[in-house]
Amino acid sequence: MLLIELKYVPIGTFDSIIPIGIILSSHLRNQVHVMKGGRQREFDKELALENAMYVFWKKGYVGASLTDLTTGMGINKPSMYAAFGNKESLFISATDHYLEKYAKPANRLLHTDGVPLKQRVIDYLTAIVANQCDSSKPCGCFISMSVTEAAGETIPEKALEAISTASGFSETYLTQFFQQEIQLDNLSSQYDANDLAVYFLTLLHGTAAQSRNGKSAKQLQSIINTAVNQLSFEPDAKTNP
User: Fold this and answer.
1) What mean pLDDT is predicted for residues 205-229?
2) Whole-prediction pTM value?
């Protein structure tokens, strides 16, 4: 329901009643209203952003035209500009959306209580690969594809910064995670925490490419197991006093 606040405003010698604001009920707060040809158009901003993310994920920043984006989002160009700004701003929002919805949730699997470190790492990698191979979305990884594209295409500066920030987030998070596990004596101090982070991110970039090439999650699971089994998840041997 829309509630319109009215207020008396003096105009000349007459008092007039005019609307001074529109208060949206809670279930409409995510709706965007854009005027076109004198009529109001309504769409779900979060859903439009999700669909824009899919277009960028499939075609990349350079490959995604404005027509591709607005068609995928189900809105027109004026609506897109009004809600998200230009293409670069939309890409930055889509990158943030991917991090929050698809990248960060897998991190929780690294902290499951009562599960050995090795299994937590396997669960984390398995969840990400399952997402990479999910046929309901573009295959691969949005961030991985963006990083690859940024190395060979001319992309605006702020979009590049968003890609760098998103890519750096996972490396920083995993580095801190493995450092904590070493401090908790769940992992040998022979390992460098950042090296482990880069090791597994390199693995995930590879599985992302393979998933785009048609490999299934089941096929890639053996790659995960092989990579994890190369490491020793035993803590340092303790010497009795």
Assistant:
1) 95
2) 0.79
